[in-house]
Amino acid sequence: MFDLQSYFIGLITLMVAAVVAWLVSLAKRDVSIVDSLWSLMFLLVALTYAWSLPATGPRAGLVLVLVAIWALRLCAYIIWRNWGEGEDRRYQVIRANNEPHFAFKSLYIVFGLQALIAWVVSLPLLAAIAGTGELGYLDLAGILLWILGMVFEAGGDYQLARFRADVQNRDKVMDRGLWRYTRHPNYFGNACIWWGLGLIGVAAGGWWALLSPILMTFLLLRISGVALLEKDIGERRPAYADYMARTNAFLPGPPIRPGSGDRRDESHD
To answer: How far is residue 160's CA from residue 57's CA, in Å, rounded to a whole number?
Structure first.
């Protein structure tokens, strides 16, 4: 069931949160705080849907738990990772490209845009929380896909953090563990999480819930994820260029052995 009123209440809630976060960013002169708040937007809008809907179904508690675990874990990790680092280099580039008056422009370029994307991506949450049907096999498939996603996202983050903590690995490329099979296990995991939530939304009767994982996968592959991070990294880090040549960008797969003559299936990237 698509409850238009609750959906727009969710938008208003996210926009208010975006304005508050923007005001904090002005005080800190650091718009990259939006990265740590990104996942919390989904927990906030999920709670908003649960509060605003006239009735909720059996998936409401399930989805709130899944979103809370993912959102709080990711928020805590990003805060820990960025602590004391200042504004992220990507946002410094955005700031430089949008002067003068970036302080005001960041309200809609960064925070408003993130809130709008989060609103669209939250469609499975609305469908699942509003659905009244009984849980079924499609819900189970969604839960299993969510678990797979958490293993790759959280596991990839943990492995990379340990790798970077070892001073002997300075200037080296992380190609161990999950990173041996995909250059971005965290992005692949994030996509799996949203496809899992999308399946739960479909199981609740909202076919339109699949618009969310489709959009997230596109963003992760072509806009804010793989494409952005690897735009010029091969030129700056020759060792990473070698890593790119033997490792899938997104979908996990066996590494290509040097001299094997195998060609990469670009559809995997």
So the answer is: 39
Q: Are residues 1 and 41 in the same domain?
A: yes
State pTM to two decimals: 0.90
Instruction: Assess whether 197 and 214 both reside in one domain.
Output: yes
Residues 105 and 218 in one domain: no
pLDDT digits (tens, 9 = 90+) for 63-94: 999 999 999 999 999 999 999 888 988 899 89
**188 lies in the same domain as 225:** yes
Burial class (CB in 10 A: 0-12, 13-18, 19+), 136: exposed
Q: How many structural domains is the chain composed of?
A: 2
Residues 166 and 183 in one domain: yes
Last residue of a domain, one of 90, 108, 133: 133
> What stretches of 122-184 show up as alpha helix (H) in DSSP?
123-130, 137-165
Angle between helices 4-28 and 113-121 (to 10 degrees): 150
pLDDT tens per residue, range 137-148 = 999 999 999 999
Torsion of Cα atoms, 15 then 116 then 32 then 177, to 10°: 130
- Residues 168 and 66: their CA atoms lie apart, in Å, by 37
The range of the structural domain enclosing residue 157 comes to 134-269
Q: Does residue 226 share a domain with residue 153?
A: yes
CA dihedral (35, 38, 39, 43) positive or negative: positive
Could you read off the pLDDT of 120-171 as tens digits, one per residue?
A: 999 999 999 999 889 999 999 999 999 999 999 999 999 999 999 999 998 8
